[in-house]
Amino acid sequence: xxxxxxxxxxxxxxxxxxxxxxxxxxxxxxxxxxxxxxxxxxxxxxxxxxxxxxxxxxxxxxxxxxxxxxxxxxxxxxxxxxxxxxxxxxxxxxxxxxxxxxxxxxxxxxxxxxxxxxxxxxxxxxxxxxxxxxxxxxxxxxxxxxxxxxxxxxxxxxxxxxxxxxxxxxxxxxxxxxxxxxxxxxxxxxxxxxxxxxxxxxxxxxxxxxxxxxxxxxxxxxxxxxxxxxxxxxxxxxxxxxxxxxxxxxxxxxxxxxxxxxxxxxxxxxxxxxxxxxxxxxxxxxxxxxxxxxxxxxxxxxxxxxxxxxxxxxxxxxxxxxxxxxxxxxxxxxxxxxxxxxxxxxxxxxxxxxxxxxxxxxxxxxxxxxxxxxxxxxxxxxxxxxxxxxxxxxxxxxxxxxxxxxxxxxxxxxxxxxxxxxxxxxxxxxxxxxxxxxxxxxxxxxxxxxxxxxxxxxxxxxxxxxxxxxxxxxxxxxxxxxxxxxxxxxxxxxxxxxxxxxxxxxxxxxxxxxxxxxxxxxxxxxxxxxxxxxxxxxxxxxxxxxxxxxxxxxxxxxxxxxxxxxxxxxxxxxxxxxxxxxxxxxxxxxxxxxxxxxxxxxxxxxxxxxxxxxxxxxxxxxx
Length: 623
Fold this sequence. Notes:
Blueprint: H1 46-81, H2 90-93, E1 106-107, E2 113-125, H3 133-143, H4 149-156, E3 163-169, H5 171-180, E4 185-194, H6 202-205, E5 207-208, E6 214-216, H7 217-221, H8 223-228, E7 234-235, H9 240-256, E8 261-268, E9 274-280, H10 293-296, H11 312-322, E10 330-332, E11 337-339, E12 342-344, E13 353-355, H12 356-362, H13 365-375, H14 377-386, H15 411-418, H16 427-438, E14 442-444, E15 459-461, H17 465-481, E16 495-505, E17 508-522, E18 529-536, H18 550-568, H19 579-585
Protein name: Penicillin-binding protein 2
GO molecular function: carboxypeptidase activity; penicillin binding
Main location: membrane
């Protein structure tokens, strides 16, 4: 080198640099690409970290929500678009015979619900799982105030693994207990019987116990059937409309006459169906426990009573059917009948001989005794047995009373039975037997089940048609001219028989303690229905002059009932004075059935002035 420098910055040996400096040449450029130099990284703050985590979480949540809504959308599309619009499957919705309960419903003849079962929840506990019995018992009593604290505490502190605390809770009660969250306390699904008609049909339907077993009425009588055929309702012959009318009028009568009870029956004489039946006092079948036994007692079927003068129906039917007595025959009703130390008199004596029609019309005890004296004891006993008075009626209720009959059946018994004393039967006995007396002579066993169309009706001929025809006339005669006038209802041709019987208490009869009754039937030209009312111990009132007999208590009640149920039963109103009606119902005190003979004689009217008919006086020869 010649010492000349050809380049470089000042200070690096370039010209103008200070003498003596050393020149260092720059490095040669690299043939490989060099990375761009990065600035040095700064440290991450906590805020940045939190933001990044939140961003990741939001992304995950959004993904999950999207997945869930996608699945729901797919399900909805399948349910609505691919499954026929979400309609229930036919084999589920239309399956026959399924039931959610284990006991069949009970309905009236028109399908109205009288008894049904509903699913309920019952409360139980496993004491071994209850850690603090005192606290648990306190909480349960606060939620269910009707529970007894000591009783609940004893159950929760016991050694058993299962104890009932309360059966058949309401939904509100269940929710209250559920909110307590007590360990070891749980619910068990059960059934509870409900009675929509309440006390209205209590003595007919009956009730069930806590375990849903029938304890009274049709619930007990058909307990097996109701359990074995839970899907088939048990249809009764009862008409709820008639039942309401009957109870309303009986209740009014009991209140008006301050009676201790009553019974009533509406009966179809053509087939034996009981259309309504009431016994007062009644009870609530929803809660029959702890009630007075008097309210549970069914006076219509279980109670047996001396029926008094309504039994003259059967004494008269026996007389006609024997062929020994006619309706126009006369019997001494002026002189008392003495037998041993007993004397039989009439309540209101007419002090003269009476025809059979008058004996029935005025309800003469003496005339009835004279008639049975002619017929005899053996014939009376056989007839009363044939009419069902020596055995239970066979009604489907378990509350079915046995008659009280004399044994041995002596002459004195036959005398008193002729006017309704000395034999005790139920109102249902009386109604069923009376129906056979007026329906052509056919006895139909009474039933509380609705008969199906076309079913054969069990029938027994107990009196002749001729006897039945005369008894219809006798029934009508009592209402038109006798003791039952207050039962008359215009257009319905009511007939019937009053009954008043002193009640026996101990060994004696009490005059101011009686059973007053009336057995009415309509229409008497072609009887279809019987309405019977029995009032227990009515008290005389001012309106009735202090009397409380069958004619003043029972007859008007029956009349009010017939006036209301007649239209419901579609019974047409008739002209009571039409010749065809009189031909089939007329009877007078003499025993004549010819209504035309009773009409006043028709006199010729005087000739009018200006008559063109010549009248010539006849000349008589001098005597």
